[in-house]
Backbone:
DNA sequence: AGTTTGACTTGTT
DNA sequence: TAACAAGCCAAAC
């Protein structure tokens, strides 16, 4: 069984550019529902050895950037904007930017289709 | 090996 | 609508 850390990194790496996911969502996809906080711990401990992990695509349930707490908020915001994910009032509109497996391409679809 | 901390979430006041 | 508190899981000390 792969470590939770590895699972989280894998999930985050699967998020396509221009889309975002929430911590709780990553935890869920990693097989540990409710471990949203732990996901943050993993991303916080990211190292160069972990390779290219698009951690900037991970936002909180409100679409806001929790990275401001560690002083990386501005960096994440810049990275997102550079990837085509504009921030509205300091946060990302999840209803049209949140990504889910199988939803690989509907970026501007605008109908929202989260699995219940 | 146990305790503490925290890039979260959700519900109540 | 905004602020406060409790719950939960993993990693770091």
Residues:
């Amino acid at each position: 069984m792969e470590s939770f850390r590895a699972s989280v990194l894998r999930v985050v790496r699967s998020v396509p550019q221009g889309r975002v996911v929430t911590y709780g969502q990553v935890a869920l996809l990693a097989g540990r529902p409710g471990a949203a906080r732990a996901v943050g711990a993993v991303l916080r401990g990211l190292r160069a050895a972990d390779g290219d992990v698009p951690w900037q695509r991970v936002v909180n349930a409100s679409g806001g950037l929790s990275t401001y707490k560690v002083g990386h908020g501005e960096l994440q915001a810049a990275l997102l904007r550079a990837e085509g994910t504009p921030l509205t009032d300091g946060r990302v509109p999840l209803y049209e930017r949140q990504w889910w497996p199988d939803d690989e391409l509907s970026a501007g679809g605008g109908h929202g289709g989260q699995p219940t």
User: Anything to note?
Assistant: Chain A has a mean pLDDT of 90.
